[in-house]
Amino acid sequence: MELIGVRRFLRTHLSIEQRRLIKFLVVGASGVPVNLCTVWLVTTFLPPDALAGLRDLAADLFDFSPLTRTGVRDIVAYGLAIAVSIFTNYLLNSAWTWGDRVAADESGGFIWRLAKFYLVSSVAAVVQLGTSTFVSASVRSSELWNTVISGEFRLYHAFSPVVGILAGLTINFVVNNLWTFRRRSNDGA
Fold first, then answer.
1. What whole-number distance in Å separates Cα of residue 33 and Cα of residue 136?
2. What's the total number of domains in the chain?
3. What pLDDT digit, counting tens, does each position of 140-179 carry?
4. 187 falls within a domain
5. 80 assigned to some structural domain
6. Do 76 and 55 contact (CB within 8 A), yes or no?
């Protein structure tokens, strides 16, 4: 089935909101390689010892001595990856997923929508980061999950963020659909 046939099939058999959800999932899927690439870049180019002071501060501040330098580097990598993928997802969602609503919004509030998108995504990101960190800490000591993919990049570095991404998905779609890109009264969709 060619691309035009798929589009025609989806338009015929799915509601606009069902198609919007599919678009959101496609955009979200495009954020996965952005996220994983960012984690790879940080874990490849930022040595764990570069964050020794941050690790010691966090261990003292939160009285959490099991936190390792590698664990701190992983948290930084996951957090930065989330921030970068939120921005690329916003650009794609604004243009494609909710492009009809953005075009109908005469206020032209790119920055306001971006701020709302980051706020919503940040709540989902807290869930994502917490889940990624928890999964990472839970499986890191396993020989299987600690398998080296490249240099310092381990199998758990790929697995943990994917689980976290899935955890934040529902929050992101529902709240962004109802608030960030909400349907305006003059919007026929």
1. 18
2. 1
3. 899 999 899 999 899 999 999 889 888 888 889 989 999 9
4. no
5. yes
6. no
Q: Which helix (H) or strand (E) holds 124?
A: helix 110-139
The verdict on residue 76 lying in a domain is yes
Alpha helices in 14-109 (DSSP H): 16-45, 52-61, 69-92, 99-104
For residues 72 and 51, what is the distance between their CA atoms, to the nearest angstrom? 7
104 touches 187 (CB < 8 A): yes
| Backbone φ, ψ for residue 185 (5° rounding) | -60, -30
pTM for the model: 0.70
Residue 3 lies in a domain: no
Residues near 127 by Cβ (< 8 Å), separated by ≥ 6?
164, 167, 168, 171
Both tokens of residue 101? 């609503």
What's the domain range around 158?
17-180
Q: Which two tokens stand for residue 156?
A: 């758990």
Name the helix (H) or strand (E) containing 125.
helix 110-139
The C-alpha atoms of residue 120 and residue 122 are separated, in whole angstroms, by 5
